[in-house]
Design a protein that fits this description.
- The protein is mostly helical.
- It has one domain.
- The protein has six helices and no strands.
């Protein structure tokens, strides 16, 4: 393992937002460049799945529409919120039974759209047909690692 030289500084390497809203600090990490990287890879992968030809006409992927920034941020919010409200299965967040009725999920995104985004979520391009598979086992998340 390489030995990294660390230099200790008593300062932040980013400008602190003027507003003290948590979302502003979130956007220090999830900036436009990073979100666009995920959007491009996810939309490309969804198209790849759709064009594969081995899908049925009732498959969710046939309803794919390109993922937009605002919708992706809602998806992330719901995904993070699912960590604070524990349910056994993802589908349970959209149940309408009075014991499970978590309206914040169904009010912001349909269950099928959420599951479809989750299915297509990607961070890197897959190797093309005939292209060799990369030797790096982390190639699927390499853009995320390099970004941070």
């Amino acid at each position: 393992m390489p030995n990294f030289q660390f230099s200790r500084r008593k300062e932040l390497l980013v400008t602190v937002p003027q507003s003290e809203k948590p979302i502003d600090f979130f956007f220090l990490l999830f900036d436009d460049e990073f979100v666009n990287l995920i959007l491009e890879a996810t939309n490309e992968y969804a198209e790849e799945i759709f064009c594969a030809g081995n899908i049925s006409e009732r498959s969710r992927i046939t309803n794919w529409k390109p993922l937009q920034r605002s919708e992706f941020l809602i998806f992330l919010g719901l995904l993070f919120h699912s960590g604070t409200v524990k349910c056994s299965r993802l589908e349970d967040y959209w149940k309408t039974d009075p014991l499970f009725n978590l309206k914040c999920f169904s009010e912001h995104m349909s269950r099928d759209r959420f599951l479809l985004i989750l299915r297509c979520l990607h961070f890197a391009r897959n190797p093309g047909e005939g292209a060799p598979k990369p030797d790096d086992r982390l190639y699927k998340i390499k853009p995320v690692i390099e970004f941070f």
